[in-house]
Amino acid sequence: MNITLITVGKLKEKYLKQAIDEYSKRLSRYCKLEIIELNDEKTPDNASEKEEQLIKEKEGKQILSKIKENAFVIAMDLGGKNLTSEEFSKFIEQNGVMGNSNIVFLIGGSLGLSDEVKKRANYKLCFSKMTFPHQLFRVMLLEQIYRGFRIMKNEPYHK
C-alpha cells in the first residue's frame, strides 16, 4: 500500500521532524510513505474573506497538481466523519482490499482546504472539532495511520 501525505506549509520545529521521522520509520514495515510539503501562501493579518478565498484556491491548485489520478483521496476536514482508531484501521484495510492501494491524505493550510480540493476528495475525515497546529497534526495523523496498521495486523498497541 502507498500512503501519501500532502501538506501545506513547511515543518520547522526539530522535535516535530524527529517525531515524523520516527513514525515514517515505523510505517516502513507496513506501507510505502511519501510526504509532500507545499508552500503556504502568506495571509495578511486583516485579510478579507475574498483574499482568504483566493489564498485557499492558490494552495488548492498546488495540492491538486500533486494528486495522481488513481489515488483515493482523504481530506482532513472539520466537516468530515469522526472514526475511532479501530474504525479508521478497518477503513484503511477495506480500501486496500477494494483496490485503493494509493491513499492520499490532505492537510490544508491555516485557512483549510479549497472547495475544489474537497470536491476531489473521496472521503472527508475529522479527528476532532478542536483546532490543532498543522505541523503537530501531521504527527498525529502518522501516529493514527501507524496505529491503524498495528490494529489491522493484530499487533499489540496501547489502547
Q: What fold name stands as the CATH topology?
A: Alpha/beta knot
Number of domains: 1
Radius of gyration, whole Å: 16 Å
DSSP strand content: 15-25%
Amount of helix:
40-55%
Instruction: Figure out the total of helices.
Output: 5
End-to-end Cα distance: 24 Å
Structural class: alpha/beta
Overall strand count? 5
Largest sheet: 5 strands, parallel
Could you name the CATH class? Alpha Beta
Show unreliable segments: none
Query: SSE order in H/E notation?
Result: EHEHEHEHEH
Instruction: Assign the CATH superfamily.
Output: SPOUT methyltransferase, trefoil knot domain
Tell me what you see in this structure.
The chain has helices spanning 14-27, 49-66, 85-97, 115-120, 134-152, and strands at 2-8, 32-38, 72-81, 102-107, 123-125. The chain has a five-stranded parallel beta sheet. 26% of the residues are buried. The radius of gyration is 16 Å and the shape is globular. The protein has 159 residues and is of the alpha/beta class. It is built from five helices and five strands, in the order βαβαβαβαβα. Helices cover 44% and strands 21% of the residues. It has one domain (2-152): SPOUT methyltransferase, trefoil knot domain (Alpha/beta knot, 3-Layer(aba) Sandwich). α3 crosses α5. The longest helix is centred in the last third of the chain and has 19 residues, at 134-152. InterPro entries: Alpha/beta_knot_MTases, RlmH-like, tRNA_m1G_MTases_N. Its main location: cytoplasm.
